[in-house]
Structure formats: structure tokens, C-alpha cells
Specification:
Number of helices: 15
Radius of gyration: 22 Å
Oligomer: single chain
Largest sheet: 4 strands, antiparallel
Number of strands: 9
Strand content: 5-15%
Structural class: alpha+beta
């Protein structure tokens, strides 16, 4: 299997998947931003990028698709989907700036992937073809641009597109709407940006099982590990609200948060030294900058359906 261009095949599709969702009106502008904030925050928090670059997640796709969720923050998964969303967003903002708003990534897609209305046909392309196609739309060192982001080991995810579009990633104690929806759909409780772990919600088939622990996080330092079962928070049988309440209370206290967890036949209290309160990602306007993100998500006249008479 050759997956080195999956950041184009799947990554560009992922970018337009979310952009067209917003343009079609299925997502309001604030929901579009919440998705980008959650995506950027998760990828920015991946310690595994220190050893595995994005290109390697595409090259190793056939292995990563079947990998377990446990340990994914260190091993990385098929990150070329979501991280490519950030890369293509940045490319889109560069084209718009270079052409003073006259062109966008839409023009690249029309030219590169478009064509005459023929029957199905195989039209292979290479990395150099992508670079050449981008240069036909806007002159730029696209080879260096893509190579830097595909081979980067951090620190952090490529957030240039968010910043170019007039926004920045911030954290506060208000739940991110996209995270809330993901928790409901996947039956999980996500405290990765505070304590540093993701756990299956009680009542589900894997209720209480810790899915992942972020290396270097407060939970990791306490000894918690993926695969353990969470049983109690500060001496009480745990539930999502009790866990979040413990995080809120610890912000005004110097006492650690105590989690009782089961590891096979063993039970242990894990003391987590964390007093930072709840942390959820959002996008915040950069003062004095143009809001390009709203423009990108705006429905174009050419995309409005025209009723047909029969």
C-alpha cells in the first residue's frame, strides 16, 4: 500500500468536508469554529509528534487503522485526516492573501481535480504535480510549505491557518460544543486538557475504562494508564459530573484529586496534583485582524442550488 499522498486524497477531502458543511448551513459559524478549535487542540497536544511526523502516519496507514485507541496520543493514529484540515486551511489563507482575495483553494480544486464531463478514468498524480498545481493558482514555495508540515516534529500542530484567518486557540472553563457532541456520540468523558485522560462514560459497554492517558500529563505523572478502570473520585463512585466537579473544586484548593482505579485484580488510589481547573478549547478573535475564516465558510453564489422546472 502506498499512502504517502493520503494527506491529499483524504486530508483535502476532510478539509472540504467541514468547510462545505458550514457553507451548506448545517453548521453555524460558531460551530465551525468549535470544530476547528477542538481539532487543533487535540493535535497540538499530541506528544507522539515528537517522534512520528505526519507523513509517517500516512505511510503507516495500513497499520494505524487497526491500532487500538489505547496509547494513541503517543503512537498517533491516522492524523493525516484532521491535521491536513489545518494544513489545507493554511494553504487556503495563503492563496487568498497572495491574490488579494481574488483566488482561493477552491480554484486549485477546480483546476487540479476538475475537468471535462467524461466517464470514469484513472488520473494519477505525484507530490510534484500538487506543488505545480498550487503554483498555477498562486506563486509560493509550496514544496517547502508542505514538506515542512509533513516532516515536522513540533512543537505543536500547524496553527498558521487559524491565525492567518484572524483567530487564535484559547482555553477556558466553558465546554466546547464539538467536544460535547463527541462525548455524547462516543459515550466518553474527555478531560484530556486538564487531568490528561479520556475515559468511557459509565453505563456503556466499556464504562469506566480509561481509553488513553496523555504522556507527561498530571494523570500520567500520578501513574494512571490506559486500560485501567476508573471506580471512584475522592472516595465516591464516579460519574462525569462528579469528576468535573472535583476538577473545579481543586482549582481553589491545594489538595490533590484522588482517583480509585482497578488494574486487573489490583486497586489503587492515584493522587493527581492538578489545580488548573477545567480547560476546553475555543477560537478567539485576534484584535485588529480580518476575519478570513468566516469568509471561507460563507456560501458562494455558485454553490446555491437553482430550482429546475419540469
Amino acid at each position: 500500500m502506498k499512502g504517502d499522498l493520503l494527506w491529499v486524497y483524504e486530508g483535502l477531502t476532510q478539509y472540504y468536508g467541514v468547510v462545505l458543511t458550514a457553507r451548506a448551513g448545517f453548521w453555524a459559524p460558531d460551530r465551525f469554529r468549535e470544530y476547528l478549535a477542538a481539532t487543533a487542540a487535540y493535535l497540538n497536544d499530541r506528544p507522539g509528534r515528537t517522534w512520528r511526523d505526519l507523513q509517517d502516519t500516512a505511510t503507516a496507514a495500513q497499520l494505524l487503522y487497526g491500532a487500538p485507541a489505547e496509547g494513541s496520543s503517543w503512537r498517533r493514529g491516522v492524523d493525516y485526516y484532521d491535521e491536513s484540515t489545518l494544513i489545507w486551511l493554511e494553504a487556503d489563507t495563503i492563496i487568498r492573501r497572495k491574490t488579494k482575495g481574488q483566488k482561493s483553494l477552491d480554484d486549485f480544486c477546480r483546476k487540479f481535480h476538475g475537468g471535462e464531463n467524461t466517464g470514469p478514468m484513472v488520473a494519477p498524480y505525484t507530490f510534484e504535480d500538487v506543488v505545480a498545481g498550487m503554483n498555477e493558482v498562486a506563486s509560493y514555495d509550496w514544496r517547502a510549505f508542505f514538506q515542512a508540515r509533513l516532516k515536522s516534529h513540533g512543537p505543536g500542530a500547524p496553527l498558521g491557518g487559524i491565525e492567518n484567518s484572524g483567530w487564535k486557540l484559547v482555553f477556558n472553563d466553558t465546554m466546547n460544543d464539538h467536544q460535547r457532541a463527541a462525548e455524547a456520540a462516543e459515550q466518553t468523558v474527555d478531560v484530556e486538557f486538564s487531568l490528561g485522560f479520556l475515559v468511557h462514560a459509565p453505563g456503556g459497554p466499556d464504562g469506566g475504562e480509561i481509553e488513553d492517558v496523555i504522556p507527561g500529563s498530571p494523570a500520567d505523572h500520578s501513574g494512571l494508564a490506559p486500560g485501567m478502570e476508573l471506580l471512584a473520585v475522592n472516595g465516591r463512585k464516579w460519574n462525569p459530573e462528579l469528576l468535573r466537579d472535583a476538577i473545579r473544586r481543586a482549582k481553589d484548593s491545594k489538595e490533590p484529586i484522588e482517583l480509585l482505579a482497578q488494574n486487573a485484580d489490583y486497586f489503587h488510589n492515584y493522587r493527581i496534583d492538578y489545580n488548573g481547573g477545567e480547560r476546553y478549547p475555543h477560537l478567539e478573535v485576534i484584535p485588529g485582524t480580518a476575519d478570513m475564516l468566516t469568509e471561507i465558510a460563507k456560501r458562494k453564489a455558485s454553490e446555491v442550488a437553482v430550482p429546475t422546472k419540469y
